[in-house]
Design goal:
This protein is about 45% helix and about 20% strand. It is of the alpha/beta class and about 725 residues long. A twelve-stranded mixed sheet has the order 2-1-16-15-14-3-13-12-4-11-5-6, with helices on both faces. Strands 17, 18, 19, 20, 21 and 22 form a six-stranded mixed sheet that branches. A two-stranded antiparallel ribbon has the order 7-8. α9 runs antiparallel to α11. Bound molecules: adenosine-5'-diphosphate and magnesium ion.
Length: about 725
């Protein structure tokens, strides 16, 4: 149990309403306040209604209430409508997030924001909320937007670990059906990732068996060991059949091959970028703020991908929940917006299985589940008929109304009532109390508007303490003396030795920052019927080359810390977020390119308007060519520097995840008279001409090593070897 404080806020007490713990969600058609009992939420709820009927608003009102009163929330957001719960302020001013709307409406941003603030203040006060509720929401709750396969919010990934749930063996003995369900769910999850559907029964049986063997014996499987097991299982029977009869070697090697793609393919690897969901952390208050965790699924390109992720996420929630103490009171809230496709009637996709499980155990663990969708035929009949709170909004067809009516066993008069509902009106039924009424959800405290753009998600996330990228130091594997001896040989071979004036300007171990990152963009394929496909890739570059990232002071700051950690290969230094660095560069570049485009456009117009004069036209043409060349040069510098493909659509281009690490180099600078040269060895003791060349060519890089860092490192960090010093 977590020790959340639950009380009805004083503004509600003043109104003479119930003093028990309750959520103020809106008002009834007779003008009385609508409160709901949070405990009633643990017997799941459904919300139906056409687009724009107010489903999301209603559910957000419940989320706001829950969070203010200390109940952490997990919200699954397929359409990006929930993230704007993060946009809130004590005076209801929502700039810069209201600026887009202002622009659409042709108003100035400031004027629009002021009008909006007045509207929100008035409407919000109408329901009897006081300032302390708003203050509670703004100061004691926090919205964290998690973005699988994207780094605009907190990146979140699936775990490639196939570790058994805790106490699996005990569970197998005490609750075998639950244990088997968990096994099956994990197996379907892996198979779906590998592109197998519900029909692949034997593959499913094989994976389940491999997992079971491993989990029972407490072995930790990984994707790699799973692949080995699939190719050569350590058992020879599957069910009643000999292994080869149950699943032939061809099917097995196909399965192994497809699983292997998960390990090798960059696109598949993107699933494993970011932190894995950890509900101990996600549901924990940070600095006294109750978290509202929004999982924005828009970064996942395919429907099937979204489903696989949701299955995984809910599975993790389920594992986690089964390890918590039981309780009747509402402890956590799960909201699933636009749930259609995830819990369909008739079919049994794994997402439905896990949702059903969650619904089944929710009461025992104090988990409230709310699901919203347009059409009652989108979800399984059992889900509808067992729901405790039902909210039916405006529906577009008679057929839909009839379906809800029968689904919820409502009387025939309900048909009439539902068909007259307007926007933001719901027919509300509390099943366990047999009550029903027409309600309107209250006005929200947060800014309700269309889906957030990626850069807005970024802004909203940036305000929060982000999980920082860790920096790895790859230690020098070769003892320095070996390098030094080697260096001597090299110098002799190159004929550099001889004159007495020869000097060592410096010899040192220098750590250079590298960036490893993945990216994504869409591209058109096919000659006739152009198809948009998502392309992904991965690059690793030296972050100090001018074309890549400039000489980022943040990167250099870390260098010294890294050197201190030199000896431990696993050492990590918490540092800058490398994706952030890349994105800054990208934004800069986009700005530059757009400037060029604009210039080209202006020049083109001038040229058109100037039909007669040949000389002017010629000069304009030359100017245009020059600008176009500049533009492509800019782009080339960037794309070559970061090792990106030459043709990408910048508008859809996105960095997914970056990793910053440092590689040590042993560098010697020799000089005689005015001549000087660098000898560079990499961490395995091989001479690295690329870095040496870069030092010769790139002045900034050279200066950096020679002046600032070199001096510092020599004196402070690396004991200078005297072997070659005169
Ligand atoms: N802050 C707010 N509080 C309550 N209702 C709002 C707010 N902002 C807009 N609305 C209303 O909510 C409706 C949109 O509801 P929404 O929940 O997005 O629909 P649905 O999720 O059913 O498609 C609009 O009719 C709009 O008038
Ligand atoms: Mg909605």
């Amino acid at each position: 149990m977590n020790g959340n404080v639950r009380y009805a806020s004083s503004s509600r007490l003043k109104k003479g309403e119930k003093t028990v713990w309750e959520f103020l969600v809106g008002h009834k058609s007779d003008g009385t306040v609508l409160t709901i009992d949070p405990t009633g939420l643990t017997k799941h709820s459904v919300v139906f209604g056409a687009t724009g009927s107010g489903k999301t608003v209603l559910c957000k009102a419940i989320i706001e209430e829950a969070a203010v009163q200390g109940v952490p929330v997990l919200a699954i957001d397929p359409k990006g409508d929930i993230g704007c719960l993060a946009i809130r302020s004590l005076d209801f001013r929502f700039r810069p997030f209201s600026d887009v709307e202002a622009k659409l409406l042709g108003r100035t941003p400031e004027e629009y924001a002021t009008g909006l603030a007045t509207e929100y203040r008035n409407k919000y006060a109408e329901e009897g909320h006081g300032d302390e509720d708003l203050e509670g929401f703004v100061k004691r709750t926090e919205v964290r937007i998690y973005t699988p396969r994207s780094s605009s919010g907190f990146p979140v990934s699936m775990s490639p670990r196939l570790a058994p749930p805790r106490d699996f063996v005990k569970m197998m003995a005490e609750e075998p059906s639950l244990a088997l369900d968990l096994l099956e769910l994990k197996a379907s999850n892996i198979l779906r990732l590998a592109g197998y559907g519900e029909e692949s029964k034997v593959q499913h049986a094989l994976i389940t068996k491999i997992l079971e063997e491993a989990w029972r014996s407490g072995h930790e499987l990984t994707l790699e060991t799973l692949i080995q097991e699939v190719s050569a299982p350590s058992f020879d029977k599957l069910g009643m059949l000999e292994l080869d009869e149950a699943i032939g070697t061809r099917d097995r090697s196909e399965l192994a091959r497809r699983l292997n793609v998960l390990v090798t393919d960059a696109g598949a690897k993107a699933w494993f970028i970011g932190e894995t969901p950890d509900f101990d952390k996600w549901f924990r208050k940070s600095q006294g703020r109750t978290p509202i965790c929004v999982v924005d699924l828009r970064g996942i390109p395919s429907e099937i991908g979204k489903q696989v992720f949701v299955e995984y996420l809910l599975q993790e929630l389920f594992y986690w929940l089964t390890r918590q103490e039981g309780t009747q009171a509402l402890q956590y809230l799960l909201y699933f917006d636009e749930v259609h496709g995830y819990c369909p009637p008739v079919r049994e996709p794994p997402s439905k299985k896990i949702l059903m499980h969650l619904i089944h155990v929710s009461r025992a663990y104090g988990l409230g589940i709310i699901m919203a969708t347009q059409n009652p035929s989108d979800v399984d009949y059992k889900v509808i008929s067992n729901a405790n709170f039902r909210f039916i909004g405006n529906l577009s067809t008679r057929q839909d109304i009839e379906r809800v009516r029968t689904g919820l066993s409502l009387g025939s008069d309900a048909f009439q009532t539902i068909s007259t509902l307007r926007t933001r009106q719901f027919y509300h039924q509390v099943f366990d109390q047999g009550e029903s009424s027409i309600i309107t959800p209250r006005w929200l405290m947060s800014y309700h508007r269309g889906p957030l753009e990626a850069k807005e998600v970024k802004m909203l996330t940036a305000g929060l303490p982000a999980p920082k990228t860790s920096v790895r130091a790859l230690p020098l594997l070769v003892p320095e003396e070996a390098l030094v001896r080697e260096a001597e040989k090299k110098r002799i071979k190159r004929g550099f030795l001889g004159g007495t004036e020869e000097r060592y300007l410096f010899q040192n171990t220098v750590y250079l920052p590298y960036l490893e990152f993945s990216y994504r963009y869409s591209a058109k394929k096919g000659l006739v019927s152009k198809q948009t496909v998502i392309q992904e890739g991965r690059s690793a570059v030296l972050a100090l080359k001018e074309v890549d990232l400039g000489f980022q002071p943040e990167l250099l700051e870390l260098t010294s810390q890294v050197s201190e950690e030199e000896l431990d290969p696993r050492s990590v230094v918490v540092g800058v977020d490398s994706t952030e660095l890349l994105n800054q560069r990208l934004t800069e570049l986009k700005g530059l390119l757009y400037d060029h485009d604009e210039k080209l456009e202006t020049l083109a117009k001038q040229s058109e308007g100037n039909g007669e004069d040949d000389a002017t036209r010629k000069s304009l043409k030359e100017h245009m060519e020059y600008v176009a060349k500049q533009r492509s040069f800019r782009w080339k510098l960037f794309s070559d520097g970061l090792k990106l493909p030459s043709k990408i659509d910048l508008d859809t281009f996105e960095f997914l995840e970056g990793n910053l690490f440092y590689i040590p180099y042993y560098i010697i600078k020799l000089s005689r008279d005015r001549e000087s040269r660098y000898l560079v060895w990499n961490r395995v003791g091989k001479e690295d001409e690329t870095i040496a060349d870069e030092l010769m060519k790139n002045r900034k890089f050279r200066d950096l090593l020679e002046t600032r860092r070199a001096a510092k490192l020599r004196s402070e960090l690396v004991p200078t070897s005297n072997a070659l010093q005169r």
